[in-house]
Amino acid sequence: MTAYISTNLRPNEKILLKTKQIASQLNLPLIERGKRSIASLQQETMSEILIIGKERMELYPYGSLVPIFFHPSSAMFRIKRLERGEPDPFIDVSLLSKGDSILDCTLGLGSDSLVAAYQVGEMGTVLGIEENQLLFFLVKEGFKSWLTEYIPLQQALRRVRAENASYLTYLSQLPSKSFDCVYFDPMFDSTIEEAEVMRNWEKAAQFSELGQSAIEQAVRVAKKRVVLKAHYRSPLFKELGFTQIVRRSAKFHFGFIDIKDVK
């Protein structure tokens, strides 16, 4: 499906120029907004739309009028908890420490990658893979441009590297033992009905079906652990050989494969 680039309803010359530059950079068609609604643009293009505005970029998945835009989300309060010495389930299961490296195969909006970037510090490495071109671009630009007075988060934002690729393809091209941890967050194998943002996100996220081939590659690439985040009822934990960590009242659980235990 071809994606399109457009503007907000009242673009000034600066926004028009920026929109043309982004369309050219991404090699995607630009559609003039005029006075048309997002629904009208979607009906005409039958596609997802990236809207360039004065304050932010907004991604409208096809069939949804709820925008996705970059925001550090939970990363800020999670980093603050870590600073206070409190636990973070993702950090605990990934065994990340200063100077470590992690490959986030399902970057999304990057909250987990940002927390990982704080944890591994200046000498560590965090690389996120996102298959959806527009989502990747939105998040990559967000990492570069988001400003906050909270220095630990600001530093984390600048540390995360992002690549637009299929994680299976990317994993298969990496040397063995390239990263301390390889992480998957497919998220949508079981929908959380009450979360509108999750249903909307599912329309945009392009997750290759997580299967044994990807896990085999991840085990080859990881030095310490392969980590999975999924709905607590997900069959993936058992099917793919993960040890599931049960968290009471949590809708998502983590699972792990210890590389030292793999024969």
Question: What can you tell me about this protein's structure?
Answer:
The chain is α/β, with parallel strands linked by helices and 263 residues long. The chain folds into 2 domains: 4-60, Brix domain (Rossmann fold, 3-Layer(aba) Sandwich); 75-261, Vaccinia Virus protein VP39 (Rossmann fold, 3-Layer(aba) Sandwich). It is built from 11 helices and 10 strands. Helix 5 links the parallel strand 4 (101-104) and strand 5. The longest helix is centred in the N-terminal third of the chain and has 14 residues, at 13-26. It is globular and about 60 Å long. Mean pLDDT is 90; it is low at 188-198 and 203-207. GO terms for molecular function: rRNA (guanine-N2-)-methyltransferase activity.
Task: Give me the secondary-structure topology.
Blueprint lengths: L3 E4 L5 H14 L11 H8 L3 E4 L4 E4 L14 H9 L5 H6 L6 E4 L6 H10 L4 E6 L2 H13 L5 H9 E5 L2 H6 L6 E6 L11 H9 L7 H10 E10 L4 H4 L3 E3 L6 E7 L5
Parallel strand pairs: 1-2, 4-5, 4-7, 5-6, 7-8
Antiparallel strand pairs: 2-3, 8-10, 9-10
Element pattern in H and E: EHHEEHHEHEHHEHEHHEHEE
Q: What is the CATH architecture term of the largest domain? A: 3-Layer(aba) Sandwich
**Main sheet summary:** 7 strands, mixed
Task: Kindly provide the radius of gyration, computed on alpha-carbon positions and rounded to a whole number of angstroms.
Answer: 19 Å
CATH class of the largest domain: Alpha Beta
- CATH overall fold name of the largest domain: Rossmann fold
What structural class is derived from the secondary structure elements? alpha/beta
Q: What is the straight-line distance between the termini?
A: 41 Å
CATH homology group of the largest domain: Vaccinia Virus protein VP39
**Number of domain units:** 2
Shape: globular
What is the mean pLDDT?
90
Question: How big a fraction of the residues is strand?
Answer: 15-25%
Per DSSP, the total helix count is 11
Low-confidence spans: 188-198, 203-207
This entry's quaternary arrangement is: single chain
Beta-strand segment tally: 10
Adjacency order of strands in the biggest sheet: 6-5-4-7-8-10-9
Helix content: 25-40%
